[in-house]
Amino acid sequence: MLDKIKGVSEEIEQFQIDTKDSLEKFRLTFISKKGKVTELFDLLKQVPNEEKRAVGAELNVLKNAAQAKLLHFTEVFEQAASQNASSGKDLTLPGIPDLNGTRHPLSMVREEITQIFERMGFNLSEGPEIEDDWHNFTALNFPLNHPAREMQDTFFIEKNPDIALRTHTSSVQVRVMESQKPPIRTLSPGRVYRNEAISARAHCVFHQVEGLYIDENVSFADLKQTLYHFVKEMFGKDTKLRFRPSFFPFTEPSAEIDISCLICKGEGCNICKHSGWVEIGGSGMVDPNVLENAKIDSKKYSGYAFGMGIERITMLKYQIKDLRLFTENDVRFLKQFTFLG
Ligand code: 2U9
C-alpha cells in the first residue's frame, strides 16, 4: 500500500498543468470521486488495523499535496483570466479562423473572357471612365440628336454637356485608334454607366467587354470566326452561334450575337423565353466614318467590333436571376464562386 501511495505521489508531482483543460484533467485523475487518491482511501479498509494509522497519515499527506497543487494552479489561471479581462482581452477565446476570400464572379468571368481573346492575339486597353463627347459619341458616329446622348441615358458631369460618364468602352477603342496605327487588335473590359432605374435586369453601373480589330482586308467572316471560337471556348463546344441583323451608329452592317440556350440546349425554356436562343452582345463592321474620325484611311483599312455585357454573360453562365446580387456584397452569394482559369 505504501508503494502505491509513493507511486501516486510521484504521478501528482510530475503531472504537467499548463492549461485549464489539464487542470481539470488533474482534478479528475486524482481528486474526483473516482480519482486515484480517493481510490487509495477506499483501499484503507483492507489495511491491517495495526498499520492503518501510519498508512492513513501517508494518505492524508498525499491528499493534501494533490489539493495544494490543484489550488495553486486554480489561482494561477484565475489571476491570468482577471488580468486578461482588465486588459480587455480574453486569451481563452477560440481564435478567429483566417478565411480565404474568393474572386467576385464578374471579375472571374471578365478574366475568362479576356484570356480567350488574348490567346487569339488581342491586347488589353483601358481608358477614362469620365469621357468627353467626342470619344463617347461623336467619333463613334452618333448623330447630334441621337437619343443615347440625352439626359435619360447618360450621366453628365456638373451639367457640362461635353463631359459624361462613359456609356460604353468603345470610347477606349477610339483612343486606341487615335494613338496607334493598324493593325489594331484590342479588347477593352471596363465599367460603364447609364442613367437607368435599378432592377433585376438593369443597373446604372455595369461592365462591358468590347473588341476591335482593324487591318487591311478584315471581313465579316473574320468577325464570325473570332466570335465562333470565343463562344465554343467560353460556353462549350456544342454551343451554337447565330447573328441577327441589327443597327448601331458605329458599325455597318451590324448584328446581335445569339447563342443556343445553355439551359435547354435550344429546346426552349423559361431562360430563353422558349426561343432556344439567348443574346450575348452585339457586333459589326466598323463604320468607315468611325475610321476616318480617328484618321485611319477607310479605303485601305477595315475592321470589326463587338461588345458584350459581363453581367449578362455571368448571369447566363451561373444562372443568376437578379443583377442586384452583384453589388449587394452578400458573402452567401459571393462565396459560391471559385476561379478555375
Ligand atoms: C469602335 C467601333 C465600334 C463595339 C460594339 C456592340 C456592337 C454592342 C452592346 C452589347 C451589350 C453593349 O453591354 S452592352 O449593352 N454592344 O452591341 N458594341 S459593336 O463597336 C465598336 C467599338 C469601338 C471604335
UniProtKB/TrEMBL annotation:
It catalyses: tRNA(Phe) + L-phenylalanine + ATP = L-phenylalanyl-tRNA(Phe) + AMP + diphosphate + H(+). Binds 2 magnesium ions per tetramer. GO terms for biological process: phenylalanyl-tRNA aminoacylation. Belongs to the class-II aminoacyl-tRNA synthetase family. Phe-tRNA synthetase alpha subunit type 1 subfamily. GO terms for cellular component: cytoplasm. Mg(2+) binds at E252. The gene is pheS. Its cofactor is Mg(2+). Its EC number is 6.1.1.20. Keywords: Aminoacyl-tRNA synthetase, ATP-binding, Cytoplasm, Ligase, Magnesium, Metal-binding, Nucleotide-binding, Protein biosynthesis. It is found in: Cytoplasm. This is Phenylalanine--tRNA ligase alpha subunit.
